[in-house]
What does this fold into?
Amino acid sequence: MSTRQVSEQPGLPLAQMLDLLPDGVVYYQTIRDESGEVVDFQLVYFNQQIANMAEGRYEVSPGLLLLGDNTAHEASIRPLFEEYKAVLTQRTLREYDYFDPNLKGYFSLRINKLNDGVLVCSRLIDKTASLRIQQQATLLQNVLNGSINGIMAYRSLRDEAGHIVDFELQSANKAAEEMLGQQAGEIVGKTLRELYPEEIEMGLFDWYCQAVERGEPQRTQARYHEPVGIRWLDLSANPLDDGIVVTFIDITSSREAQVQIDNQASLFRTMSQSVPDLGVLVCDRDYRILFANGDLPAIFLTEIKDLVGHMLEEILPAEMAAYIRQNFSDALAGRSRYMNEEIADQYYEVFVGPVNDSEGQTVMAVATLRNITAVKHAQQQLESSVNELKRSNQNLEQFAYVASHDLQEPLRKIQSFGDVLRDQYEEVLGDQGTDLIRRMQSAASRMSVLIRDLLMYSRIASYREAFGKIDLNQVLSEVTDDLEAIIADKKAIIKAETLPIIQGSALQLRQLFQNLLSNSLKFNRANVPPVIEITTQNRSATELPFWSESDKKASAYVEITVSDNGIGFDPAYSERIFHVFQRLHGRSEYNGTGIGLAIVQKVIENHQGDIRATAAPGEGATFTILLPCR
Amino acid sequence: MLILIADDDADDRMFLEQALRQSGYTNDIRTVEDGEDLLDYLRQHGKYEGQETPWPTLLILDLNMPRKNGFQALSEIKDDQRLRRLPVVVMTTSAADEDVIKTYNLGVNSFITKPFNFNRLVEIISALKVYWLETVKLPK
It folds into this structure.
């Protein structure tokens, strides 16, 4: 109204008058888009006071757009725009105090609709008060930014019915910026639904609403699924005016550490319970039981599940308590020890030692007890078996001596008496008598060979001499030397590849080759000179033949085959030929005691090897030997 | 000339005497039955005290004997200044290497394993006779 009066008085210097006012006066023209929506305001007029205030802070000149030319101050200008727009559309006057962050001052604002625009009058409020408020604001800002907690303030956005539909972020401190990886400038003014839609789903939105509606602070821990993994935040929401201040801290690492501690504790509990024959007892520095689990000896006065929390003296007979206390005392002093204990008729392997915290301080003592009663009993049984075996071996050695000497003696005499009889009483005996004596001598001779072979078998079966490096080529050459006569007699041919050097017993390996070669030489086909072929091949433990029962202790083996062109044998007997006294032929056809191959097998057993015989009647026999080599 | 046989086995003593005779040996043969008996003879102790015990040209010694075995007897003979020059041939059922080594270490002159038949024994005794009684020179 006054404007109209002034304009009706021509000649008055209106612009000068306005410039002399202590208040700032600005007139903005409304800018609309095609649909008539208000999108900006254009500066049409400003007085001198405005020019003074804005100098160096805001650019002011007619034609400037409020939003369009103040993008640098968007955060503080946007609320003003909204206010102007509200005044324009609601046609109401608005008066309020406004802090301009750019001018760092408080202003009393009065906004009027004028034509299709707004007239804004502003007056600086008391400068010192403004300054104090400003200092306080700076202080508060510093405090907020100095906090290690993230702090964000939201204003409630309500629908017409007054229900909260969203929250608008009003400010966020430095810690929040760092934790969220977003600048306050980017997010202030946006809503919760825009910024953190996941919080709706997580139930945090409802929880914020509750804090606002009830007017009570709330606190919770929330789990966020982020691309880099899970993040835990400890959140508290404090209602403030019609909004909330959310304070939060990242507790992911401590939460993870806690989970790890919980896992380890349950692992330890499970292990102490599930390891067979294991018991665990833990006490603190006051000898109070912290943990008791598993297979503990039956010495406690209460049940094992009730031990925790009790002092040693409360749960054990005095003597036992004193003994265990002494051991724990040593452990708490930093000493650990292993011992074997017999407790309540059971044998235990006991370890007692200190438990140190991360600083290296002994905070607990732990005792683990392994019940070894069964092992101990087995060990005792084994010891008595070994002693029995030793006795029986001694008997066997004695038998071997008796067999080698005393049993051979009478046979030698039968032979010699026979010789003397045939020499000196030939005429008296006649041809028939001489023949009977020859048969008697032949029987005695067979028995002598039998005793010799049996003795060799028992020696090889029971005797374990130290193994050495044995060159099998040398062994073979010694054996062929010994068999020279029969080789020459049968016109036999022996073809051998170069054999390896292995760990073994020279005596036994010699016996092995002697018996195998003798066997081949003995069982030749009528009128066919024996041909014996000896071949060798290296085998790793993984490529042993299917029939091998060797427990594959060695990593490398040597396979040696001895094959001949003799009479062979029925494959049905390929196992039985290794049994003692097993003979496939009548004595009139082939001599022998039936012990030779049994000795061969014993030698192979003693060398942790394996042997197999394959043959077909009339097509020769092949003996395949596996011996470990190192 | 005298051959002394030390053997506890009466059969073996008989075989040795028989073999010696068949080999053509005609001189004296004396027998003792164990190591004690042997040393008593050589030292004229015990039952040989005051008896005539001619010094043997050769001793044929068994190893496995009661009271004092062949090893002990051999050891004492070779330790005794007066007896050590006596040639000793061990004739035993043993063929064990350790017995061979042990007796040679004690100073035996020969080691023979008793053969398994009498005819072979005669051959061995004949060889002994040719070597010890007809070839080598022995101390008086």
Remarks:
- Chain B is about 45% helix and 15% strand.
- Strands of chain B lie at 2-6, 28-32, 58-61, 88-92, 110-113.
- Chain B touches chain A through 14 residues (CB under 8 Å).
